[in-house]
Each structure stands twice: as C-alpha cells, then as structure tokens.
Amino acid sequence: MFPFISRNKTPETPEPAPAPAKAAAAPHPLDGVTGGAFSAATSGERAAKVREWLATNPGAEQLQEVFKELSARDKGAAKAIRERMDEMRRAKGQEAIAAEWAEKAEKLLGASKLNIADALAWQRDAAKAGAPLSREPLAALKIQLADRIKTIEDLQHRVQVQREAAVLLAQRVEVLSTKSYKDAQSAETALATDVQHWQDQAAVLEGDASWGSVEARYPSMLEASKSQLLLVWDAFQSALKQTLAAAEDAQAPLPTVPVWADEIRAGRGLPTEVEQAAARAAAAKPAADPQEAKRAKHAVQEALKALQAHTAEGHGKGASSAAQQLRAALKQHGKLIDQDLESQVNTALIAAGELEGWQRWSADKVREELLAKAQGLLARPEGQELGGRKLQEALRQLREDWKKADQSGPTNHALWKKFDEACNAAYKHVEVWLSKVREEGAKHRAEREALIAELKGWVEAHKPSTDWKRIQRDLFQFGDRWRASGHVGEKAYAELQEAWKTALHEASAPLHAAQKQSIARREAMVAQAVELAAAPNLNIDAVRELQRQWQTEAQSVPMDRRHEQKLWDAFRKPLDEAFARKTQQRERVQHQLSARDQAVLDASKALEAANHSGDAAQIQAALDGLQQALQAQQAPVAAAAPKPAAPEAVAADAAAPADAEQPAELAAQEGADAEAAVAAQAPAPAPVAPKPVIAQRSGDDRPGMRRDAPAAAGRPGKPGGDRRDSRDGRDSRGPRSDRGQERRGADDRFGRGDRMDRAPREDRGPRLGDAAFRAQRDAVEHAQAALRKLATQAHGQALTQMMDAWSKRDAALLPQAQDLGRLASGSRNSWSQAIAAPAAGDGREAMLRLEMAAEVPTPAEHINARRALQLQLLTRRNDPSPQETWQQDVAKVLATGSDEASARRLQNALKALLKK
Predict the structure, then answer these.
(1) CA distance 737 to 566
(2) Closest Cα partner for 71 from 79, 63, 60?
(3) What does the pLDDT look like over 437-475, one tens digit per residue?
(4) Residues 6+ apart with CB under 8 A from 706
C-alpha cells in the first residue's frame, strides 16, 4: 500500500477562530402572549402560531395590541387577527340589536292578549333590521312566539270544530224526532254522553291560557253553538219524558212531537193527526164559489207559468223564488183548484227541485275553485309571493266572485266558512302591508311639506337675483324632487298639490315676467332683422351686431325650447333669405368667370373616371392632363389682359363709388384682375417734400444739466460696437445692401440670397374658382390614393409569384427586379440561381436575420433561437448587420427547401424590406 501524499506543498494554516456570535436578540414582549408568533422563522409558522393563539379566545385589547405590532411585520399573519376583531365588532353590534328585539318579543309574550299579526311582524322586522334570530336569546323567543301563534290558531280551529259538532248533535236530535220514540229512548244515553263530552271540550277551550288572544268572533261563535245545542237537548229530553209518560198513562197529555203523538194515538186506538185533519177538512169544506175558484186557478196558473219559464231558461235563483211563490199560491188556493192543475204544479215543483240541485252542484264547483285560489294565496313558491296591493286586489276579486256564485245558486255555509278563513288568513298580510303603507305615506307627506317650505324659503332668498338660468335650473330641480317624492293618499295629495302649485307659481312669477320682456325684445330684433334683410345692400356689421345681441339675450334669459325655436326661426328667416340672395349674386359672378375654369373641371372629371377604372396607366395619363390644364390657363389670361388705361381714366375710376353700377363682389373681382395693369401704368410718384422741423435737441436738456454742454454719450453697448439705438452706431453700419451681406457672411451657405434682390415671382395666372379648385384637389388626392393601392396590390402579387417560384424551384417564375422593389444590382440574379439550384443547406439563421432586419415578429417556437442569435451578434462587432446583408440572406433562404411556414415568414419579412 502506498501512503497518501498530499500534493499541496504549502504549509497548512490554522483556521481562524470563529467570531463570537452576537448576543441573541431579546424576545418580543408579546411573544409570550401569542405563543412565539413574533419569533417564528417563516410566515407560515407565524400564521399557525396566530391561529393557535386565537383558539384561546383572547380579549379585544390583546387583539388590538398584537394586530398593531404584527401588521407592520407580516400582514398575511395579521389578517386572521383583523378578521377576529371585525367579527367581535359585528357581534357587539348584533348584541345591541338582539337586546332591543328581545325586549319587544318579551313584551309581546308578556301581554295578556297576543295579536298574531304583531308576532309575525316582529319576526319580519327583526330579520330586516339584521337581528341574529338564529342566536340566543332571539332564537328561543322566536320559538316561543311561533308556539304561541300555533296555540292560538289551534284554539280557533277547535272552536270551529266544536261548532260543527254542535250542529251535528242537533241534527241527530232532529232525526230522532222523526222516528219512533222507542228509538229515541234507546239512543238517549249515547246522545247524553256526546252532549256532555261536547260541553267538557267547550269548557276546556274557554279555560285555556291563550283563550284571551283568540279573535273576538270565535268566543261568540262557541257561545252561540253552546246555547243552541243545550236548547235543543233540553227540548228533546222534555219531549221524550212526556212521551214515555203518555205511553204508560192513557190520561197523560200527548207529546208535542207529531210522530211520537201519532204513535201514542195508534197505541190507544185513536185516529192520527193526519186522519183527524182530513176529516175536519172534509166536514168543514164549504161549497166553492165559481168566481173565487176562477181567481184561485188564475193565480196558480200565473205562478206555474213563471216557474216553468225560469226552469226552461235554467235560472236557478229565479226558479227557487218562483217555486216559493207557487207553493204559497198552492197553500192559499189549493182547495179551489182541480186535480189536473195540482198534478202540473207538482211536476213543475219537482223539475224546479232538480234544477236547484244542479245549480247547487255547479255553484259548489265554482266555490271550490275560489276556495282553492284563496288557500293558494299564501302557498306560493318562494320568490313568487304576492305583494300587499296585489294580494288585496286578489282578495277583493275573490269575494266578488263568491257573491256572484251565491246569486246563481243556494248558499253553502261549510264552503263559505273555509273560504272566509283562508281570506282572513291572507288579509293579515294585507293589514301588515297597509300599516307599512300608512307609515310610508306619513313620511312622504312630511317630505313633501318640507319641500314646499324649502321652496318658499328659496323664493325669499332669491328675490333680488337676476340669474335667470340658475333660477330656472333650481325650479326644474324642485319639480324633479316633487315628482320623485313617494306616494301619498289621494286626498292628501290633492291638498299638497294645491299648496305646491301656489308656491311654485309664486317662485316662477319673476322668471315669467323676465321671459315676457325677453320675448318683446326678441320680437323687436325680429322686426329689425326684417328691415335689414329688406335693404338693397346687406349691412354685414349690423347683422353681426344684431346676432350678437340675440345671443346675449338668449344666454341671459332662458325660455321654453319650442317657443324659443319659433322666435329664432322668425329671426333667422329674413337674414337667411338675404344671405341667399347675396350667394346667388356671388354665384352669378363666379358663373361669369367659370369659362376659364371649365378646362380644369373637365380634366378633374376625366381623372375621377380614370380613378374608378383601376388602371394605373389611365390614371397617370389623366393626372398629366390635369397638370397641363392647370398650366395652360395662363396663356389665355395673358392674351386677354386689358390695354393700359390712361392715368386720367384710372383716377376717375378710383374716384367713382364701387357699388354705383355693379355688385360689390364683381367690382372686387374685376379690380383684382386689373390691379397689375393699373399699377404698371401709374405715373411715377412725385418727390416727397421734406418735413418741417418741429423740435430739435441741442445740448443736454436733462434736469440739472447745462443746456449749452454737449450731451454725454450713452451706455456702451456690446463690446466692439455701439448700441443699436444710437444713431451714429446705426449709421456707421454702412449701406443696407452691404449690411445684408455682412450678416449672411461671404459664403451665404444657406443659399437664400438677399431678399431685396430676389427675382420676381412667376406669374401663375388668376386664381381658380372655388368649384374648380376643389374638384382638381379632390381628383388629385383620389388619384394618388388609387396609385398607392395599385402599387400595393402589384407588390403583393409579385411576392406571391416569388413564393410560387421558390416552392416549384422554377427560376422562370421569379418576378422582374422592378416588380419586386428596390434591390441592389445582382440580387435578383443571385435569387434566381438559388431557386434554380437543388434545395440544400439550413436557412434557419438566415430567416431569423431577415426577421430582425425587417423588424417583424418571430413565431413563438423560434423566439429562443432569435434571442440567442441576437446575443451572438452583439459579440460580432465587425460583422455587417442584418439590415445590410438581408438580400444575401434571402438568397440563402431560397437555396433551402420550401414549406408553408417558411414561405409565410419570408413573405412577411420581404413585405417590409422591399419597401425600405
């Protein structure tokens, strides 16, 4: 084994002793409270420590102190503390609300009589106020109120059940009175038990603790049923007792119940009541009077005809009343009619009974539908509940329909009770809504009254004001606020509307007066405008001043838009007509001068036609024709120049007024045309006489100086010269022709020359008319745009041909150099050789250089390669840039194979490069 020999020949140096560590930082005072949250190494550990500390439910003061310190270090960890503080703040606010609504609930529960509507309103209003109904003590109070409401409603339902039971017991007694007294005697025990049980249940209801909270109609209902049942029961017992006594003792009086009395008579061997009545009637029946029998027969026949008519028409209500009238007539005259008429009467009564039954059935069907609708008012799905007003209208309509059903057939008390209960239950919500509407109505009334008082105060404060725009704006705002005020009752609205109209009329009276005065002033301006427009020569200054006055008036006093528009139309109409006349005169003048513009107009039209053709050669030819027309108009003008006029004639023409024989516009045009000739023939100006000397400065005339002493020299100007305002210095600069050369210098490198010695401007002939100038300008602009568009299209086609030649490797398809754009000599030949040769090489770097030269975006998959190439180019300082070698790079790309992506990239790059 060879020993390990260290190759390091340098002697080992002892390691430096570690520096003493700094004293550990003192722990944060709150670190012990939070369990080490402030000394945690990371934010996650700090947040975990804070959550563990919050689980111990610290106090509000500790939370505030820790949040203040921790939020400056770690807001993420302090977020949990802030949320806990917000939660405690909300809980504190909800505790106050909960205490308030708990007190109200305790008052409701402690009251001797609980109103169901008040209890329901408590729960709804507490939820709206944001009270925590799911927490104690409101949760328990809510349950107690719900139990109390349920108890009261159950008591009311039991009262209705007791009333129905009392009716059934009375019917049982009535049915027993139509049977044998022996059946009644056998059923007496069971019936007595049922009656006693009913009384016990009624006593339990009346002794319930919530009996005082039941609606007022239910106790009276129970009391009436009780008294009626006991009355029927006592009568039944007394009649049965009397019947049993009569059955045992033949001398005892007969009972008052007809069936039982006939049964006792039959047992004693005596005739029944019916037999006795028939015998008495037969014995007492006198001989019928013919006249009376005739009248009786006629009365019964009339009643019979009425009943048959109602029955045939199907009028159940009318048939019922007609049947009652027929029965009354039969009861009165039944002894005097014959057997055939009596049989007809019985047949008609049977048919009327059948119709009444049918009508009762159909009416009950309608009532059942109305009952289902009434019960469904409060059973709608969540979110589809009816509002107070719609619920009130629905209840009103249902009751009206029930009345119509009662009119078409007999009443049904059982269905009516259910229908009335459903309507009353729904009307409780209507009452709550009505109370809310009343409160809102009172609030809205107070708001409207306050608005009226505010308007009156505004009137007092703005009496001296003349800012009519602001006054009108304020009045409009008052009107908007009045219309936006809430709903009040019709009677209250009528009172408030009258007071509002009075206050508004008083507030708008100054504005209306100012508007009347403004209307008068504007009408005067209209009359003045008519007068100005009627003048033969339109005074433009007066028209401008009148328009300025109108604008000032319109801006100072606002008016109704329609009225103001009518006045403005009346003011503008005569002025527009006057300006139209002046425009016609100007057009006539232009028409006289348009002969020399016709050539330009024709050339412009020809150019426009060429623009629409889309042919570049035609457009260029038409453009050259327009330029020739513009240059050719100087010749006829030079030939038609007027002969020089005598100086005397010129002076006479200058002295004559401009508007004596021709319009002002024509005189101005002709004056402009002849201005050059007149100036050429004007005589030379006479020598100007020297001005007399008015004052001459001699000596020093400044205060305190001697007059005969020469004036002292002023302050020296720039170094090497005198001040500019010194006469001697200005004169010493030499003649003006030399000074210009001195300023410009000897070389005159800007080439401007002396403006004093420039050649006269070339005479370009008279100015074109407005129509001709606009026509040629628009035609030239359209032609240039069309040429640019055609050039772009041709360039795009050339690039497409080039890509086609590359893909097919056919140099013959390569466009010419002039079609491609600006190319260096030999570039097309190199491209043609690259296309003709077989595809070889890698053109990725050349493609990237082309995209860099053209400054076009590179596809996402080649972005990294482009960035790497850019870094490489930064290190190649002496290499040519891509902008200098892009034509060679195109040849390299064309030498490689073609694909769709490469062709698209090359085409995008060449679009930009061939235009540079």
Answers:
(1) 67
(2) 79
(3) 888 888 888 988 898 898 888 888 888 888 888 888 888
(4) 699, 700
Element (H, E) at 72: none
DSSP per-residue codes, 277-289: HHHHHHHH--PPP
d(CA 159, CA 225): 10
Coil, strand or helix: which one is 730? helix
- Angle, vertex CA 50, rays to CA 44 and CA 51, nearest 5: 90
Q: Is the CB of residue 821 less than 8 Å from the CB of residue 828?
A: no
Residues 539 and 535: their CA atoms lie apart, in Å, by 8
Compute CA distances 300 → 293, 323, 349, 907, whole Å.
11, 11, 12, 115
Percent over 70 (pLDDT), the chain: 77
Q: Give residue 108's identity as a one-letter amino acid code.
A: L
In contact, 883 and 853? CB cutoff 8 Å? yes
Check: CB of residue 688 under 8 Å from CB of residue 608: no
Greatest extent of the chain over all pairs of C-alpha atoms, in Å: 184
**Is 37 within 8 Å of 50 (Cβ atoms)?**
yes
List the one residue out of 438, 836, 768 whose CA is nearest residue 630: 768
For residue 188, give the H/E element and its range: helix 181-206
Place of tokens 């679009």: 911
Contact 679, 644 (CB under 8 A): no
Q: Pull the structure tokens for residue 344.
A: 């007809």
Average of per-residue pLDDT values in the chain: 76
Take residue 592 and report the two structure tokens written for it: 């006289």
Q: What angle do CA 255, 261, 264 make, to 5 degrees?
A: 110
* 121 Cβ neighbours under 8 A, 6+ residues apart: 432, 435
The Cα–Cα gap between 199 and 205 comes to 10
Considering the entire predicted model, what is its pTM?
0.31
- Give how far Cα 320 sits from Cα of 300, 307, 349, 705, 773, Å: 16, 8, 10, 142, 102
* Angle, helix 138-176 to helix 217-248, in steps of 10 degrees: 30
Task: Return the exposure string of 709-748: e unless at least 16 CB atoms fall within 10 Å of the residue's CB, then b.
Answer: eeeeeeeeeeeeebeeebeeeeeeeeeeeeeeeeeeeeee
Least confident of 215-229, 280-294, 401-415, 729-743: 729-743
- Residue 512 tokens read as 């209306």
Question: Mapping DSSP to helix (H, G, I), strand (E, B) and coil, where does residue 586 land?
Answer: helix
Q: Cα(176)–Cα(188) distance, rounded to whole angstroms?
A: 9
Q: How confident is the model at residue 566 (pLDDT cuts 50, 70, 90)?
A: very high
- Given pLDDT bands bounded at 50, 70 and 90, which one contains residue 297? confident
Please, what is the Cα angle at 676 between 670 and 682, to 5 degrees? 110
Rg of the chain in Å (alpha carbons): 60
* Cα dihedral 49, 51, 57, 63 sign: positive
pLDDT(97) > 70: yes
Tokens standing for 613? 């053709």
Helix runs in 338-412, H state only: 339-376, 388-408
